[in-house]
Amino acid sequence: MNNRGKKGIEAIMRSEGTGLSQLLLSPLSTLYRAGVSTRLLLYRAGLIKTEVLPCKVISIGNITVGGSGKTPMSIFIAERLRNAGRSVAVLSRGYKRTTTGVKVVSDKEQVYLTPKEAGDEPYLMALRLKGIPVVVGEKRYEAGKEIIERFAPDVILLDDGFQHIRLARDLNILLVDSAIGFGSGRLLPSGILREPISATERADLIMVKGGKLAPSDRARLTHMNKEEMEFRYVVKKMNLINKSKVDKKVTNQDARVLVLAALAEPGSFVSTVEDLGLDIATTRFYRDHHSYTEADLTEVLEAAEGLDAVVTTEKDAVKLHELFDKVRPAQEGPPVYALRIDVEVSDPERLDALLNSIPLPTGRSHGGAV
Q1: What is the helix (H) or strand (E) element at residue 126, kind and residue range?
Q2: CA distance 15 to 268
Q3: Which residue among 33, 83, 150, 293 is least enclosed by CB atoms within 10 Å?
């Protein structure tokens, strides 16, 4: 699908209106809702078994399509657990990876897979999380058993695991982007919801990115009385990822840049760049998890001629590294920087208390309480 077609579908999904396209997609959303509801009912009735691992499981996820800060939040919480003395491992599905089955992306010392083999986000987490194993596996319970056998963690952090209800968890963290909330409230494909809003009842903590929820979204959650916390992105550093020797300084004083990203929601990243005081002269956006080609990078560097720099994400940077020397001598091109994004939460002490408050269920003897 070309970018124009994708943007058209996304516009329909995020629309609050009831135009012809919405009416045509509504029957598909009804079928999707029926499938989701049937699956949940089978779990509630015990006809599909929920599996329990002998260690604490913390899940981070969302109920909307697109990004809501899952990867930065997973890194943040994994580091917080590690720094508190816990033994932690990260488990992800590894979306759009070229491998299958359970694969160790990294152990406590070394990264073993490429971005394509691991998936973009698990590879980035493996680079960032020193001393923390990162494992991918479609079947999270089976992957969890292998993690326990190999690494014996106290805690498994389940990345993007809100819908994976086959695996029991001790703390369920739901992320919501304040900029989009729950959209129109409709399910895929006429809306942005993976599950009905009632699924938020499974959350122990709702973390809202970028500020408070809009009143309409707040009203949808009022009766649930859920613990809430706000978080935001912060830029800790800008890492030069090519070998450019062009003497152009990228500062917060009106440097002119090209913004490059392959994200579900590039608007949040654009806002982050703007908050640094950079002047965005032009942009190049690709669909989420795009595999960059030499032609892509050539076009980006040509578009950036005369500008001070290209600014991209860490997730994109891991896929761009190997292309630079193939496209042109890097010394001749504009500098390309990746923003290192970290997380700040509104109440870190309360978050720590929640991470430490839930005891291991009866019968779990592996590891210690977190």
Answers
A1: helix 120-128
A2: 18
A3: 83
